[in-house]
Every structure is written in C-alpha cells, then in structure tokens.
Amino acid sequence: MQLHNTASAKTEQFIPISDDVVTLYTCGPTVYSEPLIGNWVTYLRWDLLVRTLRANNYAVNRVMNITDVGHLTSDADEGEDKMEKGARREGVTAWEVAERYTNRFLEGMTALNLLPPETLSKATEHIQEQIALIQQLEVGGHTYVIDDGVYFDTATFPSYANFAHLDLEAMKAGARVEFNSQKHNPSDFALWKFSPKDQKRDMEWESPWGKGFPGWHIECSAMAIKYLGETLDIHTGGIDHIPVHHTNEIAQSEAATGKRFANYWLHANFLLVNGTKISKSLENGFTLADLGEKGFTPLDFRMFVLQSHYRTESNFTWENLEAAANRLHHWKAVACLRHQVAPSSNSDGGSQLLAASHAALEALCDDLNSPLALAHFDKAFDELERKDKSTIDASSIESALATADDLLGLKLLDTTPDISDELKQVLIERERARELRDWERSDALRVQLAEGGIGLDDTPSGARWYYL
Ligand SMILES: [Zn+2]
Fold first, then answer.
1. Rounded distance from Cα 235 to ligand 1 centre (Å)
2. What range defines the domain where residue 176 resides?
3. Whole-prediction pTM value?
4. Higher-confidence residue: 322 or 32?
5. Which of the chain's ends, N or C, has fewer CB atoms near its CB within 10 Å?
6. How many domains in the chain?
C-alpha cells in the first residue's frame, strides 16, 4: 500500500510498526456547533483509509478525540473557548453544548456509514493524562509560565519548523501587532490556560499551576500516547492542521518521549463550496440536514466525496451533488439486478466484476485513489447492464457489491432488498399484458409499481426493476 506522507512530502510504501495491527489517530471534531459538510469530508476520507487497511488484512486500532474543551477561536491561543462561546449562543452550559453536539456528531457518523473508531475519547475525560504530559515537559525544561497559562517553549525543540516548513523569523516579524509580549516566541503555544480571575468558567480543573483548562493541542498527544503508544503508525487530519495543531502535537509529544510521534501523516484537502472556502459570513456551510431538505441522502454525499481524491480540493455545488446522487442511483439499479437473475451460472458474467473489485482495491492502495476505484466499478456495471439477463448471475453481482460496500461504504446491498411478492405479481401481470400487447393495462401496472417505489427499464431480454 502506498500513502502520501506529509512528513516526507513523498508517496511511500506503507510499513506498519507491527504486522498485526495498525495504530491510527484521527483528530476529531470540536463539539460546539452543528458539523458542516466540510468537516464530514475529512472523516469520510479517513473512513476510506480504515476500509482500505482492513481490505489489506490489517487490523486497525484507531483513536479519535472529541474536543470538548480548550479549543480557542484563534489558533494563536487567543480569543475565547469555542465551547463557552457555544454555551452563550444557546443559553446552556458548555457541558450541555458538548453533549448536544457530540450526539449530533455520532448521529452523523451513523448516517454517513462511518466506521466507529475503536476508541472515541473526550478531552474532558483525560485531564489527568494531559496534566501528566505537561509535567513531563516541565521536567524536561520545555515549558514556562506566564500570566495566562503554561506555555511550550518552541525554542527548546530545534526541529519545530521542519514539519510545516515554517519560517520562524518571518513569524517573529509578522507577529509584532498581536504578539503576547510575555510569550518567548510567537510560535510558543499554551499547554494549560488559567481560568480568568473575573469569570467562572463552566469547565475548569485544578492543576499544579493553578485552576484552568488544557490547551487544545495537548489533548491529542496525551490520548494518542495513552491508547496507541509513543509512536503511532498513522496520524490524520485536515491540511489546516499542518502549520499549528500538528506541528505542536509533534513538538510536545517528541519533546516528552524522545521518540518519533507518528510514522505517516496524512492530510485531507479542503472542501470548497461553489468554488470558495466555507466561511460563516458567506453562510455556505451546509449541514447534512440542509442536504436532506433538498432531497439528498447522506450516502449521496458520501458518493460525492469519493468522486474526488483526498489530496485535491473538492468543490461542492448542488449540481455536483446531484451527479453523485445519480451515480449512486445507477449503482443501486445494478444492485437490484441480483434479484432478477439466476442465483449462479457458469457464464463469464462474473469475471469482469471480479476484475473490477480487484482493480478498485488496487486503486485505493495507491494513496486512496477513490475516483479511479469508482471508475472501475462504473465500467463493470455498465458492461453488466448491457448483457442479456440469462448470462449474468446473482452470486457474482453480490460478491462485487459486497466488495464495493466494504471498500466504499455505500450500503449497496443493504439499501436494495428484494421486492415484495405482491409487487412481483404485478411485474408478472405486466409482462403478460405486454405479451398480449395490452399497452393500456401495461401502463396502468407501471403506474402501480411506481406508487410502490419501483421503476422499470424495458430491455430486449425483459423488464428490469429498480428503486425509484
Ligand atoms: Zn489533534
């Protein structure tokens, strides 16, 4: 399997630390508001990674964090805690906001058919681990305390700039205006923030340095190390994480353990909406519910995401989503064919499907090339549809669809059950009416089927039904 490693800027052969299990850490959501489609794209990308690893017979041990404290509105450790902001907006406590949007996130995961991580860990449930890691950094001389918190001194980690190719001198020059004058370097970041003296926070804890809350970055290091060990195989996130969040995760983890934190770093590119970046002011941050209002399912969106490669920018438009929905609709029509052909046969109908399944996996093993994987299935499905019914069989369709479902998570088999005996009877009656050239009755029966959610394609080898 080949993966593009941000750390080396190269596509590399993937070699896990252990033969048995791949350790994988995914930076999770900050649960302060409704997840937007731009957030979901990233999780769909890593779901594809997990599915591809499993298809390569790796067991995967994945941790995803839930950021429910300490993520400030500015990456520079300025501004307010997003959780407290959400709490004010909704007139509830930060704890209630966290619970509300953690649940929304879990519901969205299910709707999108995202595989659950082996461990889903909340920052607020790992405060002691975070404090312990900060203490370890303190002993190593990597921290200092100023008025508003405990900071990591990036000058004590000489390779700090390497991962994101940062120009620290330019940062110093550019930071003059906003530079917290107590910070030793503009790139230094908060490990522990003190609660404001004049304000009671919903979320705060005692620590050796004073009452407060953890900085955003430390949670990922603390939880990754706790559950996956000091060096993980793969760490994933969005490309916006590279210059700050992941750079800081590497600095604090490696400064504490003296070991390489992750062997492979994978980053998903942005989702644009109508060619522009998603922003609050443009009100172009759609949710899954917004898509539902226009008649699109979460799996339509999943297909849309698979149509682009994770390292390219993808562009969301309603037209693009519609094209993806049409593609999925077509694939489901192919899935319906398995109920309308012989269970198995000696024909060669299955060999092309089998070849497509292998080719799709091969495409995904090449740095998760999902557009190519889809194209392989498209080609095989088109060929299948052109064949005479008598030359194709259910078992080869089913095994190709099972592979597609395992790899792509589109639930093709689950969403296309066989139709009821009553509807089957209507189909038989309609075939009879057509044989008798009773077009009026044939049309009436077609309408009856449509009312039952079934569409029909009349082909030279008989009618084929599909879900409308
Ligand atoms: Zn993280």
1. 9
2. 2-268
3. 0.94
4. 322
5. C
6. 3
